[in-house]
Design brief:
- Strands 1-5-4-3-2 form a 5-stranded antiparallel β-sheet, covered by helices on one side.
- It is built from 2 helices and 5 strands, in the order E-H-E-E-E-E-H.
- It has helices at residues 14-32, 79-94, and strands at residues 4-9, 35-39, 45-51, 54-60, 64-71.
- It starts with a strand and ends with a helix.
- With 95 residues, the protein is an alpha+beta fold.
- 37% of the residues lie in helices and 35% in strands.
- The relative contact order is 0.26.
- Helix 1 runs antiparallel to helix 2.
């Protein structure tokens, strides 16, 4: 089970949702300084996120974004702050 699990629905068409996801990812990279890979698919896109103590994954589908992360020992005390930052970004770009 993941340390962080956040699900955000959206009402965009898939192409618009993909654009929003990429913008969210670019902004989050600048703010939090993590490495990420974005893989486009026919029915879903997958983003893999790596930063010291954090292994995350976001999946974009036609109707939602699901973010999951496992936190290492050093990152666990920051779980609330990490969750809040992810949630704020998802609300900003997908509401």
């Amino acid at each position: 089970m993941s340390d962080i699990y956040i699900e955000q629905t959206h009402n965009f068409d898939f192409a618009t949702a993909r654009t929003q996801a990429k913008q969210w990812l670019d902004d989050a990279r600048k703010e939090f300084g993590f490495d990420a890979t974005y893989q486009e698919g026919a029915n879903q896109d997958v983003v893999t996120i790596k930063k010291s103590g954090v292994d995350g994954r976001a999946v974009l589908t036609a109707d939602k974004v699901v973010f999951e992360a496992n936190l290492g020992f050093i990152a666990k005390p920051f779980k609330g702050m990490i969750s809040d930052g992810i949630q704020d970004g998802l609300i900003k770009y997908f509401s």
